[in-house]
Amino acid sequence: MQAVLKKVIETVKPNLATFVKYAKVELVPPSPGEISGISNGIKNIITSAKTGKWKQLTVREAWLNLLVATEVTCWFYIGECIGKWNLIGYKINV
């Protein structure tokens, strides 16, 4: 049992260090400066939709935008499931 545990620890240790390194940067809440950038980003999206600039995206840019939108949607649904403590619908007591 100890040999297996030792092997698991040896395997996980470098990966955990990498995870912690990136988590300190990527998983922090937005700073006040970044929050103002969000409103600028939304304004850019609206302007792009109005002017037709979105038609000039490369396939790569469009694909990356789709992936980001999919990720945001998935996190929304995961948050909904966590918030209601149920996978299917809300429990309504009548």
Number of helices: 3
Rg, nearest Å: 21 Å
Mean pLDDT over the residues: 87
β-sheet strand percentage: under 5%
Structural class: mainly alpha
Helix amount = over 70%
Globally, the shape reads extended
Family: Belongs to the ATPase g subunit family.
GO molecular function: proton transmembrane transporter activity
Keywords: ATP synthesis, CF(0), Hydrogen ion transport, Ion transport, Membrane, Mitochondrion, Transport
Subcellular location: Mitochondrion membrane
Give a short summary of the structure.
This protein is mainly alpha-helical and 94 residues long.
Task: Please characterize this protein's 3D structure.
This protein is an all-alpha fold. It has one domain (2-84). Helix content is 76%, strand content 0%. It is built from 3 helices and no strands. It has helices at residues 2-26, 32-51, 59-84. The longest helix has 26 residues, at 59-84.
Descriptive terms for the model:
94 residues, 3 helices, extended, 76% helix, mainly alpha
Mind sketching the topology for me?
Blueprint: H1 2-26, H2 32-51, H3 59-84
